[in-house]
Amino acid sequence: MTYLTDDPIDAAALVRTVMRPTDGAYVLFEGVVRNHHEGKAVESIFYDAYRPMAEKEIDAIVRHLEALYPAAALTVVHRLGRLIVGDSSIAIVAAAPHRAEAFEACRNMIDLIKEKVPIWKKERGPDGEEWVGWQGQC
Amino acid sequence: MTYLTDDPIDAAALVRTVMRPTDGAYVLFEGVVRNHHEGKAVESIFYDAYRPMAEKEIDAIVRHLEALYPAAALTVVHRLGRLIVGDSSIAIVAAAPHRAEAFEACRNMIDLIKEKVPIWKKERGPDGEEWVGWQGQC
Amino acid sequence: MPSMKVHLLFFAVLRDMTGTGQKDLVLEAGTTARQVWQSLRAQYGQLAAFTQPPMVAINESYAAPDTVLRDGDQLAFIPPVAGG
Amino acid sequence: MPSMKVHLLFFAVLRDMTGTGQKDLVLEAGTTARQVWQSLRAQYGQLAAFTQPPMVAINESYAAPDTVLRDGDQLAFIPPVAGG
Asked: What is the rounded average pLDDT of the residues B17-26?
């Protein structure tokens, strides 16, 4: 139960930890720091988290999806700290005997993580820094 | 326009060829030889193709999806020859500024390739060999 | 009225606004998370406009803002999340 | 009646059944892909049961079985595909 890391993500290694000889497919999703957000240039992002709670919330999502897609094998790593354009912030792998479950479990996982896990990002660009999502309202 | 290979697929290298600084996500799909098919044990698969036509058909699918998902960057490699359990037969990468397009383009690509491209597989297991899909009917 | 201790954590924009990551509070028994938020608004000018608290977490789980706190609780206000 | 040459390709299960990957045909002008399939059925016992041809490709593109072949065409019958 260590879904958070301060180090670069090795997606290929993550895939190897998941695949079983019964799996006919896997889907890997990586979220990557891009050079723009809502029309503004982005140079880097600082990811902050409420770490113990984030670990618990991610674990709850993994268990929920394992129950929903019993044939799938799932894993996820989220990186924290300062990332630059091109760095991966998250990698999710969903392996399954058939591709439909792999796609659905992977897509479902990133959607739930973005919705529920206490992780935040502060974007830095030529115009300064800003916490994403805090637009003067809670 | 070389979508077919006789060599092992390097998915990480494929991802690197696709990603642009504007991309916030990519989805990688790999099809992998699994150890079973319709209840039978599988040890290896031989992939055959009508190579020049397969190249054209894959290219047409890529162009179709590029038109459907203009923000996405897409690529695909299909391996031919004899593959053993755990080997990847196909890798598809769809990168995009936002994840929805990456997921949809990738899923759409594998579905279309499985439907349209003249590639065949002969499964080998303890009970012998069989061409998949040729169940005594055309 | 008996008092209790609550450990308050700040993250992200709230840590920047308050200038701290944590704070020990001594509260009257019966105090809710929402009431803690109101006292923070009085204390930090940048929060004054936020009449409604963000999401609330008590002991590392989401909780309703009107949950009554208990002695030893760890309380956090969760700004809109942006992981992934 | 004038004749034409057509290059016929076999893949996968059809290559195994016919024991060859290709074949040069000399056909009467006006022959269709479907008619070529019927002559193959007469020639190869394992195909006799298949009254309908598989998918047809002419010059590396899918075509209707009743397409009239032309001199120099490359013809292939495409068994059910199973890529990916």
From this structure: 97
Asked if A71 and A101 count as a contact pair (C-beta separation under 8 A), the reply is: yes
**Is A119 within 8 Å of C82 when comparing Cβ atoms?**
yes
Note the helical H segments in A1-138: 11-18, 51-68, 99-116
Provide the strand spans (E) within C1-84: 3-9, 22-28, 55-58, 61-63, 74-78
Closest CA to A50 of C81, C51, B74: C81
What per-residue confidence (pLDDT) applies to B65? 98
This prediction's pTM: 0.95
User: Which of D29, D23, D24, D25 minimizes the C-alpha distance to D3?
Assistant: D29
The DSSP annotation for chain B comes to: ---EESS---HHHHHHHH--TT--EEEEEEEE--SEETTEE--EEEEEE-HHHHHHHHHHHHHHHHHHSTT-EEEEEEE-EEEETT-EEEEEEEEESSHHHHHHHHHHHHHHHHHHS-EEEEEEETTEEEETT-SS--
CA B86 to chain centre: 15
Q: Please compute the mean of the pLDDT values over residues B106-118 and round it to a whole number.
A: 98
3-state helix, strand, coil in chain A (%, to 5): 30, 35, 30
Confidence (pLDDT) at B138? 45
CB of D56 closer than 8 Å to CB of D64: yes
Average pLDDT over residues B54-67: 98
Q: Does position A70 have pLDDT exceeding 80, yes or no?
A: yes
HSE (side-chain half, CA atoms, 13 Å) at A112: 18
The residues of B whose Cβ lies within 8 A of any Cβ of A are 11-12, 15, 19, 21-36, 85-86, 97, 99, 102-103, 106-107, 110
Chain A CB contacts of B132 under 8 Å are none
Of residues A36, A30, A55, A65, the one with CA closest to residue A125: A36
Average pLDDT for chain B: 96
Q: At what angle do helices B11-18 and A11-18 cross, to 10 degrees?
A: 140
pLDDT > 70? residue B1:
no
Q: Which chains does chain A touch, 3 or more C-beta pairs < 8 A?
A: B, C
CB D5 within 8 A of CB D24: yes
A31-52 pLDDT, tens digit per residue, is 999 999 989 999 999 999 999 9
